[in-house]
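Worked example

This section walks through a single chain of length 175. The input is the sequence exactly as stored; nothing has been trimmed or padded.
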Amino acid sequence: MAPLPEADLRCWFNFLNAHTDLTRRLDAELESAHRISLAEHTVLQQLVIGGGHLRMSDLADTVLLSPSGVSRLVDRLVADGLIERRPCGDDGRAVHAAITGAGRELLARAEPTFTAALRRQFVDRYSAEEYETLADLLLRVAPACRNRQASKDSLPPVGGGSGWGSDSGKEVTKR
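Given that input, the structure is written out below as tokens.
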């Protein structure tokens, strides 16, 4: 098999570097302002989107961590009182991770920081058309992402009104 052309490798490394750089910057802003990592924020977000609780296996799939990785992260969030483990009613072997009131409060405080940083560092660097195209192009590479995404009806409004805090009645459009 022939080696990849330089342009193909450049695109691949640009993708990897963009992901790494963006996640590091988002993580740093959340840590600095709220003492919460991007991974912890993502878990709390997914629990809210999931109706307040998810099976541990579903949470691991949603946040793209291994079962042991999500278990360690959940252990830290449980120790901080942000989530709790609950038995799953229909399957005695399964465990749910459930967000607590303290977890919802932290998420509500952190959400404006996350939203502003994500807009500034990613969303606003594209026109609305480019952003939609980018989203569609990325699904070509990872079609399973479509299965991991919550329905649009269950997502919080984009912008300042996160749906998790006191300003949840305000909806802000993407552009």
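What to look for: The chain has one domain: 28-154.
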